Amino acid sequence: MDYSPEITSLTWKKDGQLITTGVKKYPSVRNKKGTYTLSSQLTITESEGRCSNISCEVRHSGSDKSNGMKCPPPVNTPNVLLTVSSNEEISSKKFATMVCSVNDFRPKSMTVKWLKNGQPMGSGFATSPPCEVNRNFSASSRLTVSAGEWFSKAVYTCQVTHQEGTQSQNITASGKRHKQRKQ
């Protein structure tokens, strides 16, 4: 930033407390327009910056400025669990309901796709919006198919895509489950 008059002090703060380590300050330079440019660099580890309010405070005789920087929130990879109603329940109700539970993830953004024998399904499912639980997010997606479709031995896949990659879980009428993780 360009300032006039010359800057008298520049400090870095973390959660309101002065930071003295990892700070580099460079000399103020006078520009052709008569204003001054000052640079400073703060080096911190990812864990030091996590969930902290970092600010650079500049003071000069004209005014005080504080520029806060938001650090990105930590990323948590979701835990994915695919379950299905019992064969007895499927036989009596004439349909199968699969539930794909997606838990403990952050940030909030994620998508769920359902596949049948490796092909995307366009209907028969509903996905809840993520809700916040203990500073992480959880969601679920339910797929309902007829008992005939379920017992046809098709392979159903819940595919969850999140910032850290894609995870898939498969399930069949025989009860076999397979967990996969793709990047």
UniProtKB/TrEMBL annotation:
Pfam families linked: C1-set (PF07654)
Key words, A-Z: Disulfide bond, Immunoglobulin domain
SUPFAM superfamilies membership: Immunoglobulin
Segments forming domain Ig-like: 78-174
Gene3D superfamilies, sorted: Immunoglobulins
Annotated InterPro entries: Ig-like_dom, Ig-like_dom_sf, Ig-like_fold, Ig/MHC_CS, Ig_C1-set, MHC/Immunoglobulin
Domain of life: Eukaryota
The keyword Cell membrane appears for this protein: no
Keyword Oxidoreductase in record: no
Protein name: Ig-like domain-containing protein
Organism whose genome encodes this protein: Scyliorhinus torazame
